[in-house]
Design a protein that fits this description.
Blueprint (H helix, E strand, L loop, with lengths): L47 E12 L9 E13 L6 E11 L15 E12 L7 E13 L3 E14 L4 E12 L1 E2 L16 E4 L2 E9 L5 E9 L4 E10 L4 E11 L4 H7 L1 E10 L5 H4 L18 E3 L1
Antiparallel strand pairs: 1-2, 1-14, 2-3, 3-4, 4-5, 5-6, 6-7, 7-10, 8-9, 9-15, 10-11, 11-12, 12-13, 13-14
């Protein structure tokens, strides 16, 4: 069977390059082995869209060391070129439903579940052959309906350097911009509980290595610290699995500085898995799209909450 000749993508305004497609040298493939062709789709829509759904598990200080959360989520993500090309704009939302059998986080059984809304909006620029630096900055907002309700926000940033061999070395951070006080919230089954506390997003800083794969996917490992001297370890992956679909997964574990019961209350983790649908193009071509959002929609593995 004859193999199709590689296309020249250098003149396409919307596909100006990434570590794994189009590569830094046309026809070089995804990695230094030259294994795969992760070029752009034929369609040139100036809009990048995806719809996703999946499941997640998470735990944090708001669970008081007594509860873990499991549930399902769905959402979308959009991006379009900005007037300041090659900078692009992104917007996305994630809705989660958790704890279908209730919880005992307050030592009294609660029949209610836990629902969350994440919103992410910002700017990003993907690297290309002329400028292998790429960066993104987004605003994350979280509405969390639990045994107390919270509206929190943070700024999340990422910058990285792309190499010809598919490696990507980078820095990431998240900084709190909005917290919540609970002392004025009335909860019927907690009349004697001390509400002299609140919640705020956890500031964290880390480094990462992202690697492109021969299957036109990618994986990443990260490590860092929080403002409270806790450690964080995590990773994520993205992998095409069909003509219109891809798998997207992530996890992050916050290792509390303290031990014992306090450490149990302060530790946090988030893990998620999503099936993503791309209505305009095959996922194998998504990897090389300059409009593909750099920072995913926030979730419980990227938005940690701390009691204060």
């Amino acid at each position: 069977m004859l193999e199709p000749e590689p296309e020249d993508w250098t003149g396409d305004e919307f596909f100006d390059g990434h570590a794994h497609g189009p590569p830094f040298a046309p026809g070089a493939g995804c990695t230094c082995d030259g294994v795969c062709d992760c070029g752009p789709a034929d369609s040139g829509y100036p809009l990048f869209a995806s719809i996703f759904a999946g499941m997640q598990g998470f735990k944090g200080p708001q669970d008081l060391g007594r509860n873990g959360n499991f549930g399902f989520h769905e959402g979308f993500e959009l991006s379009i070129p900005s007037p300041l090309r090659p900078v692009n704009m992104q917007l996305g939302m994630r809705f989660t439903q958790n704890n279908f059998a209730g919880d005992q986080v307050t030592e009294n059984y609660r029949r209610d579940g836990r629902e969350q809304i994440f919103l992410t909006a910002g700017l990003f620029r993907r690297g290309n052959a002329c400028c292998p630096w790429q960066w993104g900055v987004v605003f994350d907002w979280l509405h969390d309906e639990y045994w107390v309700d919270a509206d929190l926000s943070q700024i999340r940033v990422e910058t990285s350097w792309l190499t010809r061999c598919g490696n990507e070395w980078g820095f990431l951070a998240a900084v709190s911009t909005g917290d919540e006080n609970f002392d004025d919230q009335l909860i019927d089954d907690l009349d004697d509980f001390n509400f002299d506390f609140g919640a705020e997003p956890t500031d964290y800083y880390g480094i990462f290595l992202r690697r492109a794969t021969a299957a036109c996917g990618e994986w990443r490992l990260l490590a860092g610290v929080t403002e409270h001297s806790d450690a964080i370890l995590g990773g994520d992956f993205w992998l095409p699995v069909g003509n219109c679909l891809a798998l997207d997964g992530d996890f992050t574990f916050l290792i509390a500085e303290h031990s014992g019961s306090r450490g149990q209350r302060e530790e946090a983790f988030g893990v998620g898995l999503s099936l993503v649908w791309y209505p305009y193009r095959p996922p194998r071509n998504v990897a090389g799209h300059s409009l593909r959002p750099l920072l995913p929609v926030a979730d419980n593995a990227r938005f940690f909450v701390n009691r204060r």
